[in-house]
Design a protein that fits this description.
mainly alpha, Growth Hormone, Chain: A
Length: 407
């Protein structure tokens, strides 16, 4: 365990200023891909009504950001976080400009390469490492805060984008937002993102060997593989309502503006509840928090299958946001609890990569199933099935954890 009792804390008021600024930057960066989500039907109308086309663009963004997090994290270690964030913001703007040229290939390249791989990939995962170095006592709370940036983006931007798209069209909305995010992120990075405190001694391991031969009595790679499977399978159903709720509402005769407001309710609830899940995970641990969150998410997915009216969908959206929001940070926390700190530099980005792939797969699969069946119930039912698989994987880990603790 970490021997921090005799070490001075690095946490100051500046630590929380940095974390708050990072939250704002994340909320702006993650706003970019929401334009495609809100404009899904408009973009699909330009390719024969196939919703899998814009859904695939969103999937490429998630895949790219996951891979880019590993690559750009190494770059940040060499040249500093300020450069990677400014570069990432510039690439997001380039991606939006390219995507505005229309489906399909400009949209795919703009989202997968520029917005995802070298855009958000240069901001998201590097920020986790950067912010963790500003904290040693309340690191979990700080990481829960910045990881809520994507939820804050989902709560804030869809209603704004819905109105902008109605007024100016989705292409112009992308161009306007490209300018906006550059104007906000670049000065913030220059002013706030100072080098993190030099705290290698806080990560010194005592009483723990550098390479453990087993975790909970199992091979470490087996445990980590199960964690990767858990975060991948939790994110597939997690992404389906987020990526298709506006289009789903439109199919039911609910206006796009109300559908976008529903997404805001979903992700607003997720933003606030993630802080609560952080407190819960501090008390009962990451694995047990994952187990509860998986069960709550399954209930929400089942409710989406059977709910068709506007009031009911607003209620389900809020409950779904409350349920799923703790899953990803709890998985990262569980990795920190189970594995040596010296291995976190690659385990954390790898888990975020699997999370991104799950988010990509969920949105894309839902689009494919809609194109095949013509309605969303099969997609949501598939998400529920994957969620049940996730519950089984997490239950296996949680049960093994309880057995080793009791032994």
């Amino acid at each position: 365990m970490l021997n921090t009792t005799s070490l001075p804390s690095v946490e100051t008021r500046t630590s929380w200023v940095v974390a708050s600024a990072v939250l704002v930057i994340m909320a702006v960066a993650f706003g970019a891909p929401w334009i495609t989500v809100v404009a899904l039907k408009d973009i699909a109308a330009e390719v024969g009504g196939e919703r899998s086309a814009p859904a695939f663009a969103s999937a490429l963004m998630w895949i790219g950001s996951g891979v880019g997090g590993i690559l750009m994290g190494r770059v940040a270690e060499r040249v500093g976080i300020r450069f990677t964030v400014i570069f990432g913001a510039a690439m997001i703007a380039v991606g939006l400009v390219l995507s505005s040229r229309g489906p399909t290939w400009p949209l795919y390249v703009g989202h997968g390469l520029f917005i995802g791989l070298i855009g958000i990939g240069g901001i998201n995962a590097p920020f986790y490492v950067y912010v963790s170095r500003w904290f040693d006592r309340r690191r979990g709370s700080a990481l829960a805060l910045i990881s809520s940036g994507s939820y804050l983006a989902g709560a804030l931007w869809p209603p704004i984008f819905a109105r902008a798209i109605t007024y100016a069209g989705w292409r112009q909305t992308m161009l306007y937002y490209a300018a906006f995010e550059l104007i906000l992120i670049v000065p913030a990075a220059l002013v706030v993102l100072a080098p993190s405190p030099d705290t290698p001694h806080h990560a010194t391991m005592t009483n723990v060997p550098r390479a453990q031969k087993s975790i909970m009595g199992w091979p470490p790679n087996l445990v980590f593989a199960l964690q990767m499977g858990a975060i991948f399978t939790c994110c597939i159903p997690m992404s389906m309502p987020q990526a298709h709720l506006v289009a789903f509402c439109s199919d039911l005769g609910i206006s796009a503006a109300h559908g976008a407001a529903m997404v805001s309710v979903l992700l607003g609830a997720a933003f606030f509840s993630r802080q609560l899940w952080g407190v819960i995970s501090d008390r009962i641990g990451g694995l047990y928090t994952m187990l509860i969150g998986s069960a709550c998410q399954a209930v929400g997915m089942a409710a989406f299958v059977f709910t068709q009216d506007e009031v009911g969908l607003f209620t389900v959206a809020a409950l779904f946001g409350l349920g799923f929001s703790g899953l990803v940070p709890a998985n990262v926390l569980a990795s920190r609890e189970l594995f040596p700190v010296s291995e976190s530099y690659w385990r954390m980005p790898t888990l975020l990569l699997c999370s991104g792939w799950g988010m990509a797969a969920g949105g894309w699969i839902a689009g494919i199933l809609y194109d095949h069946f013509g309605f969303y119930a099969p997609a949501f039912a598939t998400g529920l099935g994957v969620n049940i698989l996730n519950f089984i994987v997490v239950s296996t880990l949680a049960l093994r954890r309880s057995q080793t603790v009791m032994a």
